[in-house]
Amino acid sequence: MTVQILYFAWLRERIGIGREDVETNAATVADLIAQLRAREDRYDTAFSDMSAVRCAVDQVLVDLDASLAGAREVAFFPPMTGG
Amino acid sequence: MTVQILYFAWLRERIGIGREDVETNAATVADLIAQLRAREDRYDTAFSDMSAVRCAVDQVLVDLDASLAGAREVAFFPPMTGG
Amino acid sequence: MVDLRIIVSQDDFDLGVEAERLETGPDTGAVVTFTGRVRDVAGGLRHMEIEHYPGMTERALTDIAQDAADRWSLSAVTVIHRHGRLIPGARIMMVGTAARHRDAAFESASFLMDYLKSRAPFWKKEVREDGAEWVASKDSDEAALDRWV
Amino acid sequence: MVDLRIIVSQDDFDLGVEAERLETGPDTGAVVTFTGRVRDVAGGLRHMEIEHYPGMTERALTDIAQDAADRWSLSAVTVIHRHGRLIPGARIMMVGTAARHRDAAFESASFLMDYLKSRAPFWKKEVREDGAEWVASKDSDEAALDRWV
């Protein structure tokens, strides 16, 4: 399947792009991250500290072991700092 | 000594006046209340439920056993309902 | 130095102007305002009559505001309380606090409200179509003070 | 019916107008507003850059506001959050709540702030004279959520 992946804040800066379409068979968010890290160093570096990574699937916050079944949009970002 | 006594809210309404000067030798607020209650029925009625009476001496909230030494202004009123 | 603004008046106030005044200095990150209005709970309320103790009121409000400012290191505190005749929907009072962080601003505003409710010399009377009645004080308002001791 | 007002924008807002909007209906006795501003804590802050996740932001804010409205029976909730470049002293965001009583208005505003801090998709970057840095999330902000569970 094809999912659109979005990156925000320093994840966006480290990876160097804000969005991309990725072809994947990943079953879970964690699987997708493993696939991305295997691609290139900049991905590997960006995802090196997973305690600092949050994820939303189709604009809903999820844990990293969440399923990607039916997912169209996956976003990665650091802990939020609104308010 | 002469003290100015002020009444507020339903204490003012029951006694029928908002302020008066009273000549007194009362040592405490409670003594002053006893003196007032002895004067006339309207005072006796107004002060009949002491749990509903609050007092300020010279504009500072005090307990009913507070001293009147040096007092110039004594105010009686029901529990406050501001805000 | 804390900026204290205490107003006791029959007049209405402009919340936007008051809130803007609280946004002072480079170190103010959080401003909280509370506004209280006359509610017509049961229907049939003509107006609220608010009596106060001139002289003591200003003094009590200033003491409470200064106390809050010291306790939470506030940069500004505003307390405005109206008196006289207020119709349903009218603003009765406001408190406003300015602090570095949100917790201090929220807590101090809540503290001010709890003290205003049962330590500032104001008394409310409801004038209804079927008569007038002094608003009774609530045990819960007295109990609310315990958390600040 | 609760009146939800959610705005995500680069533009500033008028707190007076927003507060007035919250004063709706005969049963609203208490309105609380919180306003957050850019602080220049250490000196030398040029501006704050606020990034957000368009689409998800509006959705998250609406969910949080609806949740607060249900939990405290609010008559109105306003959440405004700015993004883009904000200079020191500029307003970043506000929440406003309207309820019957003061406790509901205070608690729900505090709840909204705690959720906004760590559950709404905003990220702050401080651009200083000596470089730029993403603001780190605080453990205390995450811990603040525990009291609402």
UniProtKB/TrEMBL annotation, chains A, B:
InterPro entries named in the record: Beta-grasp_dom_sf, Mopterin_synth/thiamin_S_b, ThiS/MoaD-like
Organism domain of life: Bacteria
A Pfam family per the record: ThiS
NCBIfam families tied to this protein: moaD
Protein name, entry field: Sulfur carrier protein MoaD
Organism: Jannaschia donghaensis
TrEMBL record, chains C, D:
Classification via Gene3D superfamilies: Molybdopterin biosynthesis MoaE subunit
Highest taxon of source: Bacteria
Catalyses which reaction(s): 2 [molybdopterin-synthase sulfur-carrier protein]-C-terminal-Gly-aminoethanethioate + cyclic pyranopterin phosphate + H2O = molybdopterin + 2 [molybdopterin-synthase sulfur-carrier protein]-C-terminal Gly-Gly + 2 H(+)
Coiled-coil intervals: none
GO molecular function, one term: molybdopterin synthase activity
One GO BP annotation of this record: Mo-molybdopterin cofactor biosynthetic process
EC number: 2.8.1.12
InterPro entries: MoaE_sf, Mopterin_biosynth_MoaE
Annotated keywords: Molybdenum cofactor biosynthesis, Transferase
Signal peptide: none
Pathway: Cofactor biosynthesis; molybdopterin biosynthesis
Alphabetized CDD domains for the sequence: MoaE (cd00756)
Subunit structure: Heterotetramer of 2 MoaD subunits and 2 MoaE subunits. Also stable as homodimer. The enzyme changes between these two forms during catalysis.
Function as written in the Swiss-Prot or TrEMBL entry: Converts molybdopterin precursor Z into molybdopterin. This requires the incorporation of two sulfur atoms into precursor Z to generate a dithiolene group. The sulfur is provided by MoaD.
Family: Belongs to the MoaE family.
The name this protein goes by in its record: Molybdopterin synthase catalytic subunit
Gene: moaE
